[in-house]
Amino acid sequence: MNTHRQEPCRLVHNRPGNPLSRRQFICQAAVATTALAMTNPFVFAADSAIDAKTKPRLRKTLKIGMVRVPGSLADKFAAVRKAGFEGIELDAPGFNIAEVKAAIQISGLVVDGTVNANHWNVRHSDPDPTVRAAALESLIEGLRATAAVGGDTLLLVPGHGKDGSQAEVFERTLANISKALPIAEEVGVKIAIENVWNHFLYDHEGGKDQTADELARYIDAFESPMVGVQFDIGNHWKFGDPAAWIRTLDKRIMKLDTKGFSREQDKFTRITDSDIDWASVRKALEDIDFRGWVAAEVQGGDFEALKEISRELDETLGTA
Questions:
Q1: Separation between Cα atoms, residue 165 and residue 224, nearest integer Å
Q2: pTM of the prediction?
Q3: Is the domain covering 58-317 a CATH 3.20.20.150 domain?
Q4: Region 89-114 average pLDDT
């Protein structure tokens, strides 16, 4: 058995004519690098910034409900990773945190964010204050659960237009959701409002030339960096130009959702079967320098179906 122990690395003052050994040279470099990091952390911050610029502009994720792969949660995560996705979005609250952490460790998949589990039925816009209190409780529980598994956003449908006038729903949801902002700040999870067919912030009976102005005004009313948009590219193609909405929302966009919609057929479709002008969408995302997660939100399936969805994201948004 070799009982020889090497001395720890330390700075050595070299004398002329006495060259450093290979090990001394490596030690000197390691110590100097560590010292540089301690005295000037911006050196490595700059390296990280450069690295961020070299990463893909868009990173692929999807909703957990799309994954119809047999087996444990770890098996499902592994299949998603193999199909070409880096992340997954869970429904929160409601998942087993320990189980999710184990699946992350085994698969290497990232839980980049979550979707509030019951925002359609328990709404922040409900006229009943007890329902709004339950919606707030669900939101807070979801924020904490998201943070526990490493996610940084919780997608939220803020309310529904059937609960009152646009002004009432606006003020009611703004007041209720704002109560969760201290928790969002505490746990480091942002609230990402999704544009959906909820008869709010757009005219559901209106034409195809509507803008994102009201959605932008709503986000700005929170006056908090913890609230932004998870912009669904396909959801409002029926009502407006997604490229124009992207430019209006600009830095308010935290993440993207995507699906297909055909104006000609007036229905949702596969991503690649839609008549969305994907080239204009890509240009708009480049114009606002969006970099981050894009989540497929479509009919899922088995492993082969997930691979095809991954390929469709590559084709339409250039995520490859």
A1: 24
A2: 0.83
A3: yes
A4: 98
